[in-house]
Design a protein that fits this description.
The protein has seven helices and five strands, in the order H-E-H-E-H-E-H-E-E-H-H-H. It has about 180 residues and is of the alpha/beta class.
Length: about 180
């Protein structure tokens, strides 16, 4: 599933803004708002334009191995490569400062994080019940649709986290199939 831009925005405009920010920017938003999806879509577009993307994916499960992951990443860095960090908020302030000094070796640094401030904000991901409804309709194809009231309730129960909403929809569907 691709990232959904609101009206008036698109990948081309986003990439022009990224270039204007010297390929050093942050995608910001709460959990389940599409940050990683957008970052992966951007990486795909940049690869088709000749860029090399190096990924560092940080999460709760690999927090204990971050030092090794970072060392491995910087052992083969190139100024032609763009470094994409998924989950930059997993790094504390000291580790972040040390990391960004070393990241200057790369031709760019694009992160996703829950809060603004680490790099200039390239894009702020937001969710709405209407966006959730579109995603559900796409996933269900023409099989059925969910009333907007039910979508809004699902959205509110999960604090706008689309990932959790879609997981709950999957669980509901699976339960209905096997009940």
């Amino acid at each position: 599933m691709r990232y959904r831009f609101p009206d008036g925005s698109d990948m081309e405009k986003l990439l022009h803004r990224l270039e204007a920010l010297n390929f050093r920017a942050a995608i910001v938003g709460p959990e389940g708002s599409g940050k990683t999806t957008l970052q992966e879509d951007m990486a795909y577009e940049l690869i088709t334009r000749g860029h090399t993307i190096r990924w560092l994916r940080l999460n709760w499960e690999n927090r204990r191995t971050v030092t090794k992951l970072i060392e491995d990443l910087f052992s083969t860095s190139s100024e032609r490569d763009l470094l994409f960090v998924d989950g930059a908020e997993q790094m504390g302030a000291l580790r972040w400062r040390l990391f960004t000094r070393r990241a200057d070796r790369y031709g760019g640094l694009v992160i996703n994080t829950h809060a603004a401030g680490r790099l200039p904000t390239l894009w702020e991901c937001q969710t709405t019940p209407e966006l959730l409804s579109c995603l559900i309709d796409e996933l269900l194809a023409s099989n059925s649709s969910l009333p907007i009231g039910e979508v809004t309730q699902l959205f509110d129960q999960n604090d706008g986290n689309l990932r959790l909403c879609l997981r709950e929809m999957y669980d509901r569907w699976a339960d209905a199939q096997y009940s």
